[in-house]
Amino acid sequence: MKQITVGVGEYFVTRDPETCLVTYALGTCLGVTIYDPLARVGGMLHFMLPTSAVNQERAKRQPAVFCDSGLPLLLLTASQLGAARHRLVLKVAGGASILHQGESFDIGTKNYRVLLQLLAQNHLTLAAEAVGGTRSRTLKMHIATGTVILRTPGYPDQML
User: Fold this and answer.
1) What is the Cα 130 distance to its own chain's centre?
2) pLDDT of 106
3) How distant is the alpha carbon of residue 55 from its chain centre?
4) 39: which of 14, 15, 64, 135 is 20 to 30 A away, CA to CA?
5) 30: domain range?
6) Model's pTM, two decimal places?
């Protein structure tokens, strides 16, 4: 089994059943997994900010930093590998209030709201989520099965 780390502002899509995708330190960021159980195509996105309007130049260089440019890229890449949108199983984790920012600066909540808006616009829904709270999370996805494991410090691992 080979493990591929999806860093902050990155995404990865594959159909290799020997691959496990993992992303660490999901604080205010969100980790989104997609999986088509028939095509056995899976992917992960680790985005940091809700909209690319704050930095169009960075969005061109690194679209996966932002939800509104990263999610479409994740979906497009999965479809290019044979995934069908109507079969996608989507899961999300993160969006915590790690630094106890004020309500006006709650990036985790803003990230989640924008994600839900984009999913609705694309007629997609979440199958599972672990969003909010105050703890950082790790997300792991096994491409062979689509299984997503959530690790939260101080809690046992759980399937998402």
Assistant:
1) 11
2) 84
3) 20
4) 64
5) 2-159
6) 0.94
Handedness of CA 65, 69, 72, 76 (dihedral sign): negative
Sign of CA dihedral 126, 3, 143, 74: positive
Domains identified in the chain, total number: 1
- Asked if the model's pLDDT at residue 101 lies above 70, the reply is no
> Which CATH number belongs to the domain containing residue 23 in this structure?
3.30.1330.200
Q: DSSP letters along 35-56, please?
A: EETTTTEEEEEEE-BS-GGG-H
Cα angle, residue 29 at apex, residues 28 and 32 outer, rounded to 5°:
135
How many angstroms separate the CA atoms of 53 and 128, rounded? Answer: 28
Residue-wise pLDDT for 102-136, tens only, equals 554 689 999 999 999 999 999 999 999 999 998 99
d(CA 8, CA 5): 10
CA atoms of 85 and 133, how far apart (whole Å): 30
